[in-house]
Design brief:
Elements lengths: L12 H23 L5 H8 L3 H29 L1 H20 L4 H29 L5 H18 L2 H10 L1 H22 L25 H9 L2 H33 L3 H29 L3 H20 L4 H15 L2 H10 L6 H8 L1 H20 L5 E2 L2 E2 L3 H22 L12
Antiparallel strand pairs: 1-2
Helix pairs in contact: 1-5, 1-6, 1-8, 3-4, 3-5, 3-15, 3-16, 4-5, 4-8, 5-6, 5-15, 6-11, 6-14, 7-8, 10-11, 10-14, 10-16, 10-17, 11-13, 11-14, 12-13, 12-17, 14-15, 16-17
Length: 430
């Protein structure tokens, strides 16, 4: 009598983390490029002879293409799988970084940043898609938190370490080497990553494997995702919550700490990196807490309130440096609640639309950076009193307070929105 074949086991943790980890490395690189201008503001303003508004726009070119790519990326992740997306993304990221490194004018620097943003935009949604196949559903919020942590590691490297390298070798050679590193990552992704454990002989955690099955109209799927109320709420809420962190740590925090608090660039970069580290730690902790209590909305609401109070103190109160650092740590930790939003969004739609929903909702944090970075720069220029040093403009405390008030206003709107989200109970929409 024939015995039934043994059912394949789920992939070992070491294999799952290594496959997912290569996607995480591209996300790390993307985050590194996202915040790198913060420690190069003086060099970029001098090199390209620009003010705060133009610098904010240069940094935001990354976000323009990143945001535009989120919906296509989610659709492509659903239809074609993460492996090809990650490989192509890493290759284009290498090209865009090289273009930025050797740009002869502001136009070409903007073009390089545009390519970088479009290419690394595939990383996060692809990581979420890999997580649904390579990890158990109960681990999704934790893995999402680890994704943010990996990204913030890139952001931390773009702080003091990058500033030291820029001071030693110049920003152009450092960006040139960065292009070579991500080109090597492109090859590694193609050789190692697979869309589903089935392709390695293991059982998948996904309810349905990618490829081969019929797909509905792209636009019909997008329209269906947008028909859910939670999709809109979870798209718009991170504009304030995460946008404030990306605006402060990603561009304007370092010059603010230098010009208002009189710190050296390396110390200012270390402090903004502390904000990012707290953000990274808050993600998995708050995500795990929401899994533990079996609810998403209460943690998201409370964390947003804490973040709002933190930014209020940072922007409007005359804090001493130690108190300011403490406020940034608490605010960054609370802002890690955006991780809850990713799991929240995934659960708010049917499983077949998870990639599209993730792409739509991942636009929110980047929309915050895209809108707030140049808007803060524009307001700084509007309140500039005419001081400059070495070709870079100097702004006073009143100018920064007026500009950062935009961040405060956006977080107020975020809090008003999230209270209307429909709770999923940490369960997938049928």
């Amino acid at each position: 009598m024939n015995t039934p074949a043994a059912k394949p086991a789920h992939p070992p943790a070491s294999l799952a983390w290594s496959v997912w980890g290569l996607g995480a490395l591209l996300y790390l690189f993307g985050f590194y490029q996202r915040v790198a201008p913060a420690v190069m503001t003086d060099r970029l303003m001098t090199d390209f002879a620009i003010g705060a508004a133009a610098l904010g726009n240069l940094s935001a070119f990354y976000f323009y293409s990143y945001v535009a790519m989120q919906v296509p990326t989610g659709i492509m992740a659903d239809r074609w799988g993460p492996r090809r997306l990650l490989t192509a993304g890493a290759g284009v990221a290498a090209l865009g970084t090289a273009l930025f490194a050797f740009s002869p004018s502001l136009f070409w620097a903007n073009a390089g940043r545009l390519l970088i943003g479009a290419s690394v935009a595939v990383a996060f949604v692809s990581m979420l898609k890999l997580a649904t196949h390579w990890f158990a559903p109960r681990q999704f919020a934790m893995v999402s938190g680890m994704a943010l942590f990996c990204g913030v590691v890139g952001g931390v490297f773009a702080g003091v370490p990058l500033r030291l390298l820029v001071e030693s070798f110049g920003w152009r050679p450092v960006m040139g080497v960065s292009a070579g590193v991500v080109a090597c990552l492109c090859v590694a992704i193609w050789l190692r990553v697979r869309d589903d454990p089935v392709q390695r002989g293991y059982a998948s955690y996904s309810l349905s494997t990618q490829g081969g099955g019929p797909h509905g109209s792209i636009w019909r799927g997008l329209a269906e995702v947008l028909s859910y109320r939670n999709t809109w709420i979870l798209l718009l809420t991170p504009i304030g919550v995460s946008g404030a962190v990306l605006t402060f740590a990603g561009l304007w925090g370092v010059p603010y700490l230098r010009q208002v608090h009189g710190l050296e660039t390396k110390m200012a970069a270390a402090i903004t990196s502390t904000l990012l580290v707290a953000w990274a730690l808050g993600g998995p902790v708050l995500g795990a807490l929401s899994e533990r209590i079996g609810r998403r909305k209460p943690i998201y609401v409370v964390a947003t309130v804490v973040g709002l109070l933190g930014w209020s103190a940072i922007i409007f109160l005359p804090l001493s440096l130690p108190v300011l650092i403490g406020a940034l740590i608490i605010t960054g930790f609370a802002s890690g609640s955006l991780v809850i939003g990713f799991a929240f969004a995934k659960e708010s739609v049917p499983a077949r639309l998870m990639g599209t929903a993730s792409g739509v909702c991942n636009m929110g944090p980047l929309l915050g950076g895209m809108l707030l970075q140049p808007a803060v720069g524009w307001l700084l220029d509007r309140n500039w009193l005419g001081s400059s040093a070495g070709g870079a403009r100097i702004y006073d405390a009143a100018a920064y307070q007026a500009a950062f008030s935009l961040m405060f206003g956006c977080i107020v709107l975020s809090l008003c929105l999230i209270v209307f989200a429909r709770e999923t109970g940490c369960k997938q929409q049928a």
